[in-house]
Design goal:
Strand order of the largest sheet: 3-2-1-4-5-9-6
Oligomer: single chain
Structural class: alpha/beta
Number of helices: 12
Radius of gyration: 18 Å
CATH topology: Rossmann fold
Distance between the termini: 36 Å
Order of helices and strands: HHHEEHEEHEHHHEEHHHHEE
Shape: elongated
CATH superfamily: Vaccinia Virus protein VP39
C-alpha cells in the first residue's frame, strides 16, 4: 500500500524535500558511530549519511527513481518484511515514514530485529500536529489521516526503550514537510509545495481547493497575520515533530 501511495503522490519530492542542516545534525548525532546504517522508508534519500555504508529500503518505484546516482543502493521492501538477517546493521534511520507503514508495530519490531545499535526515528506527535494552524484553520480533514500512528513514546517502547526529544522547526526550514512553512503561509498556495506534503496530497482535491482558497483570502485581507501575529516573532516552534532514539545493544 505504501509503495502505491507514493508512486502516485511522491513525484517531485526530491525537489521540495531538501534536508535541513539543523535536523540533519541531530539525526547524525543520534546515529553515533554506527558504520552500517539501514534507512527504512528511504524515499529520495533525504538525511542519508554519506560517510557510512547505507542500505536503503523503499517500496515506491517513483521515490527510488528520484534518488541521485550517488545515493546508497535501494531495495524495494517494506518494514515488517525486511530481507536481512538479525542484527545485520549497526544502526537504522527512519525519517517521517512510520505513518505510512501498513503495520507500524510489525515494522518497528522488524527494524529492531535487524539493528544491533541505535534506531533513530524522525516522527511526529499526532495530537500536537492536529493543533497547528494549517490543520485547525484550513484543512481540518487532515485529522482524519494517520490516526493510528503510534505516539512517540509508543515507538520508543516498541523499539525496546529509548528517549523522545522535540525536533523544533526553524522558521526557515529547508525541508518542505507539512508544518515546515508555519511562518511562511503563502508557500501553501504553491501546488508544488502541497504535492510534497503527503498529508495534503492524500486529501480529496475539492477539500484542498477549499482550504487553499480560504488561506488566500485570509492572506489577502490580513486575517492570517492578525490571527497569528505572535508566530512572526518566533524563530522556531514545536510543530509536533519528534526525535526518537532507541539505543539497542551493539555487543
Amino acid at each position: 500500500m505504501t509503495g502505491q501511495v507514493y508512486d502516485t503522490i511522491g513525484v517531485g519530492y526530491a525537489e521540495r524535500r531538501r534536508p535541513d542542516s539543523r535536523i540533519e545534525a541531530r539525526l547524525r548525532a543520534a546515529l553515533g558511530d554506527a558504520a552500517t546504517v539501514l534507512n527504512v522508508g528511504a524515499g529520495a534519500g533525504s538525511y542519508e549519511p554519506t560517510d557510512r555504508t547505507v542500505v536503503a529500503v523503499e517500496p515506491s518505484a517513483a521515490m527510488i527513481a528520484q534518488r541521485p546516482a550517488s545515493a546508497a543502493p535501494a531495495i524495494r521492501a517494506i518494514a515488517g518484511e525486511l530481507p536481512f538477517p538479525d542484527r545485520a546493521f549497526d544502526g537504522a534511520l527512519v525519517v517521517l515514514s512510520v505513518h505510512h507503514w501498513p503495520d507500524a508495530a510489525a515494522g518497528l519490531a522488524d527494524v529492531r530485529r535487524v539493528t544491533r545499535g541505535p534506531v533513530v526515528v524522525f516522527s511526529f506527535d499526532y495530537a500536537v500536529h492536529a493543533q497547528q494552524w494549517l490543520v485547525t484553520d484550513y484543512l481540518p480533514e487532515m485529522v482524519g489521516l494517520d490516526r493510528d500512528l503510534p505516539t512517540p513514546d509508543a515507538v520508543a517502547t516498541a523499539l525496546g526503550g529509548g528517549t523522545v526529544d522535540v525536533l523544533p522547526i526553524p522558521h526557515d526550514c529547508t525541508d518542505g514537510f507539512c508544518h515546515a512553512w508555519w511562518r511562511r503561509p503563502a508557500a501553501y498556495l504553491d501546488p508544488g509545495v502541497r504535492a510534497a506534503i503527503s498529508g495534503i496530497a492524500r486529501l480529496p482535491a475539492p477539500v484542498v481547493d477549499r482550504g487553499v482558497a480560504a488561506l488566500r483570502r485570509d492572506l489577502d485581507d490580513g486575517t492570517w497575520h492578525r490571527r497569528h501575529a505572535a508566530l512572526l516573532a518566533e524563530t522556531e516552534i514545536d510543530g509536533g515533530y519528534r526525535l526518537i532514539l532507541a539505543p539497542g545493544d551493539p555487543t
